[in-house]
Amino acid sequence: MLNIVVCVSGGGTNLQAIIDGVAEGRIRNTKIVGVISNNAGAYALTRAKDAGIPAFCISPKKFENRENFNQAFLAQLEALAPDLIVLAGFLVILPEKMIEVYRNRIINIHPSLIPSFCGTGYYGLKVHEAALTRGVKVTGATVHYVDEGTDTGRIIMQKAVEVLEGDTPEVLQRRVMEQAEWVILPKAIDEIASSRE
Predict the structure, then answer these.
(1) Half-sphere exposure of residue 52, counting CA atoms within 13 Å on the CB side?
(2) Which of 188, 185, 169, 170 is nearest to 13 (CA)?
């Protein structure tokens, strides 16, 4: 059984895709042992509770400094003892110690075809705005391992999505989520779980 912790900052649509994937048997031999958010208002926490998954908010705002936040975040992860950590829209720079301890056990979903529109500053709608400004005809999503860089870890899986005439960043974001993110993130977790059998 692959025990996973999902870290998320916002609405949790990718978290929902994972919850549904586990429930429907598309993600095999996997259990979500916890959801951690840095944002007390994140709807992802509600999604987790509705699915009977332990949910925790560890917000940097509640700590005197970053070091104390990092320690609390790592302590919560250690308590959950995950085999894999899934970053699903988690807008927090990971502590270096976490990357060391969980090397090759942290994956991230990014809403572009890396190496395009990735790295520092590229998250959320900013990625789709950049794609439209550049005029690309194809975009997509990437699941990759997390290393010390920003979106620089080894690529696990990618899926392309067509950019259509008249797309707004919001419309494109939705299409990339529906056609790519919600497809390849569950698939990547399933493959990792299967490879451990």
Answers:
(1) 4
(2) 185
The reply to whether 110 belongs to the active site is yes
What are the tens digits of pLDDT across the range 116-174?
A: 999 999 999 999 999 999 999 999 999 999 999 999 999 999 999 999 999 999 999 99
Tokens 């042992």 correspond to what residue? Answer: 33
Confidence of residue 93 (pLDDT cuts 50, 70, 90): confident
Report whether 109 contacts 89 (CB < 8 A): yes
pTM passes above 0.90: yes
DSSP-derived pairing of the beta strands 2-7 and 30-37: parallel
Do the strands 155-162 and 138-145 form a parallel or antiparallel pair, or are they unpaired?
A: antiparallel
Report the distance separating Cα 89 and Cα 108, nearest Å. 8
Choose, from 27, 90, 110, 172, the residue flagged as catalytic: 110
Three state DSSP letters for the chain: CEEEEEECCCCCHHHHHHHHHHHCCCCCCEEEEEEEECCCCCHHHHHHHHCCCCEEECCHHHCCCHHHHHHHHHHHHHHHCCCEEEECCCCCCCCHHHHHHCCCCEEEEECCCCCCCCCCCCCCHHHHHHHHHHCCCEEEEEEEECCCCCCCCCEEEEEEEECCCCCCHHHHHHHHHHHHHHHHHHHHHHHHHHHCC
The encoded tokens of residue 68 equal 């104390």
Name the amino acid, one letter, at 30: T
